[in-house]
Every structure is written in structure tokens, then in C-alpha cells.
Amino acid sequence: MQTMIDAGVNLTSSQFDKDRADVVLRAKSQHISNMLLIGCDLASSDDSLALAQTYQLVSTAGIHPHDAKDAPDDFIAQIMRLASSPHVVAIGECGLDFNRDFSPRDTQERICSAQFALAQQLNMPAYIHERDAHDRMKGLLSEHQLDGVLHCFTGDKQALKFYLDYGLMIGITGWVCDERRGQQLRDLIKYIPNDRLLIETDAPYLLPRTLSPKPKSRRNEPAYLPAVAEQIALLKNTDRESIAMCSSSNFNALFMAKPQSNI
Length: 263
Description:
It comes from Pseudoalteromonas luteoviolacea CPMOR-1. The protein is α/β, with parallel strands linked by helices.
């Protein structure tokens, strides 16, 4: 079976506290060869790095827009410290979330822009979150020259076109397995070129609704990544192995090939 790479896992989540090692083992049993562990604030970025070192995985370091309001004055220096590790391969999760607005929008923009500037300085990809904020994200990205991925894409066709034209990878989660909320995304899958596609679980969130039987816990985990690949393959009229192969190749090209600089 073709191996896969999970391009986004919240392994620091408290939902994994009781069986984190088993979660990693189950992923390996399903031919998940690597996982990108997401940092959402400085503490979880530290913890994700520690887990990446323990399990020989990779991680991100950054501040999510939900946590932007709590960023300390020296957050860039702290992210830069984390980014000096070879296990840290992206800056983020950073971005804008105007859906929940857990942080003031001007604060979100300031913290996001600073992380974009750091990613550009360090020649590292950005791990980007955007929800209901495409117009402002478009403006921020236009101020920088970045490689990266639009994580857990759920936007419309106009947003997809911009992110593809800009040069980003597009991260697809179990949202594509949801015939209710995910119909717009399902309609757009055909417009995402195979060489720009990443697959991710965003575990423990976004459990694929196509799983049968569904786990009693309702918790998502990396071992369920094949369900995401399977749904994308159906929508693209291809096979799961082809989706696994191209997404793994894309992941390695984006996150594993470029040396960091200026650290």
C-alpha cells in the first residue's frame, strides 16, 4: 500500500493525553509515514516540537489567530528559537479567523503579518489558517513572497483561484467527507491540481463522516487519513494510491526540501 503523510495533526490536544503513543502507532499501522504536528501558540509549539523529536516527526511553530491576543512582546524571537530545530519545518499555524473573532481583527492581522515576514526571512513555508477573511488575507499575502499551504481549505472558488495563483498548496481535511457542510468543497476538488494538493486530518477534529463504522469516541486521528484520500480520489475520478503519492510528494517538496536560513 502507498504510504501517506498527514499534513496537519493537533497531537498536543488534551484529547490524546491518555493514548498519544498508541495514536502514533495506529497511524503507522495505516501506512502514515510522517505527520506535521501543529503549533497554535508558543506552548503548543514547544510541545509539538518535543513530540516531533520523540516520534521522529516534524512540527510547526507559530501563533493561531485565536491566540493572537495573548502573544507576548517577544513572540517572534520565541518562534525563531523554535524554528532553529530541524524538526520545525513551517511557521504557523498563523492567519486570520473572522468567523469566531476570538482575537481582535487588527491584532490578528498584526500577529499574522509578523509571522509572514519571519517565514520569508527564514526561507520557511507558512502554515496558514483563513476563515471568512479572504479579502484581508489576500492583502496580507500580497505584501509578502511566501511558500506555504492554506490549511484546511473551506473557501469558495474565488478564494481557491487566488491561493492557487499565489502559489500555495491547498490542504484538504475530512471536511470533504461531509455531504452536508462540505458540498462546496466537494464541488471544488476538481479545480485543485494534483501537484498542489496536501491531505490532512486536523485531528482530533473533523472526523470523516464517511467512516464506517464510526469510532465511539467521535475523535479523529491520523489513522483515518485514508478516508480523506479515498473521498478526494472519488471526486477526482482516480485511485487512492495516486492521491497518496502526489500529496506525499508535494509535502516533501514544500516542507522537507528547503534549507532554513538566517537563524
